[in-house]
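User: Show me an example of a complex going from sequences to structure tokens.

Assistant: Sure. Here are the input components:
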Amino acid sequence: AQTVTQSQPEMSVQEAETVTLSCTYDTSENNYYLFWYKQPPSRQMILVIRQEAYKQQNATENRFSVNFQKAAKSFSLKISDSQLGDTAMYFCAFMASEYGNKLVFGAGTILRVKS
Amino acid sequence: GAVVSQHPSRVICKSGTSVKIECRSLDFQATTMFWYRQFPKKSLMLMATSNEGSKATYEQGVEKDKFLINHASLTLSTLTVTSAHPEDSSFYICSAMAVFTDSSGNTIYFGEGSWLTVV
């Protein structure tokens, strides 16, 4: 079974600083997708960034970037120049077509950005 | 990114009645949609996979007769909570898979979610 582990239940960071959220996963598949979703207090799930396992290059989206280590099955999210609006629950998720494209979520990390 | 709309955002119903929640993909066709339930400060719990034109696939422990799912078109899936009870009160959220023909691959987008309160 696929599992996703987020070992940091809560984190905080000062505005304008950089923070890294960790995520590890376990799978025997070679082709899959990894995602980071942000869930602010509104509860809307917002796609932050996605990574395809066959791509070695780390995905980036503006201030958000990932460190994808396929051999180590690690997929951390780096948020640069943190903003107050980044305060949210962040979920790491795994998806593979062999498993019906169901998202397997980690437990989530609550990130608080302080002014 | 692609847009998924969920309606209603909040609904209150009386115990014993049924309530329907709609999930629409607005700018793409979705052969597969997913329904989740989320408890406070917890991760999303997958309830079922909704497949266009066929029966939904329910996760273990989810009552299919209580949570009816219909995926009648490529842009609409509905979740009906039948004979609702207070313990069904929760945040329900849907998602849809967008399949891109370019190098983007597959991506899952979420609706805004629906708060259900059963009184």
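The lines above are the inputs; the final block is the predicted structure for all two components together. Chain A has a mean pLDDT of 95.
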